[in-house]
Description:
Strand order of the largest sheet: 2-3-4-7-6-5
Number of strands: 7
Low-confidence stretches: none
Helix content: under 10%
Radius of gyration: 13 Å
Number of helices: 0
CATH superfamily: predicted glycosyltransferase like domains
Number of domains: 1
Mean pLDDT: 90
Largest sheet: 6 strands, antiparallel, barrel
Structural class: mainly beta
CATH topology: Thrombin, subunit H
Amino acid sequence: MAGNERRIHSRTAMSAKVKVVHDSQGEFVFSTRDISDGGVFIVVDAEPFEPEIGDKLTVQVQGLPVPAPVLDMVVVRKTNDGFGLQFEDE
């Protein structure tokens, strides 16, 4: 891995709508920027969504012909345009 890159899984660009539910901040619908075997990056524009690193939330892909599974995730990274979420270990 080059530089300070600590990523284990390769990212794949993917734009999908996901419902994100945070216990204290409520429910939102965001777009994804990329996904990997370890997690997903969600793009947050003007929404008032400010979770902390380590916060747990649920994520569900929207717009599929059948309901997608609801996945437990944790916030692992913040940027100016969104958040990196990691799939929570079972």
